[in-house]
Amino acid sequence: xxxxxxxxxxxxxxxxxxxxxxxxxxxxxxxxxxxxxxxxxxxxxxxxxxxxxxxxxxxxxxxxxxxxxxxxxxxxxxxxxxxxxxxxxxxxxxxxxxxxxxxxxxxxxxxxxxxxxxxxxxxxxx
Length: 126
Hints:
Blueprint: E1 8-12, E2 23-26, H1 37-40, E3 44-45, H2 53-59, H3 66-78, H4 81-93, E4 96-100, H5 109-125
Parallel strand pairs: 1-4, 2-3, 2-4
């Protein structure tokens, strides 16, 4: 795999696991309501990569706040080098599927995280 193209997938934690998922990483701070740990088939639950509780409460899954949420969450990620590094290490080994519980597939932190990782990856590859 090219260092400029990490293989990142996004999936709701409630969706069925697939052999195509690669390494499955839950990126929520809270365990998804009603999800059985056995059925999640996680390699890792990386709570520390999720938005801080204050930012999560402020965002409150309001699409009108998504742009500002994204800006603030990117700042948190930039300051969270060790945890981002753990995901980078997994991405060096192959496909990683970021799992999240939010029902809004267009406005959630996993989208921001995936974009951050891709941008972060490119900046380190050059």
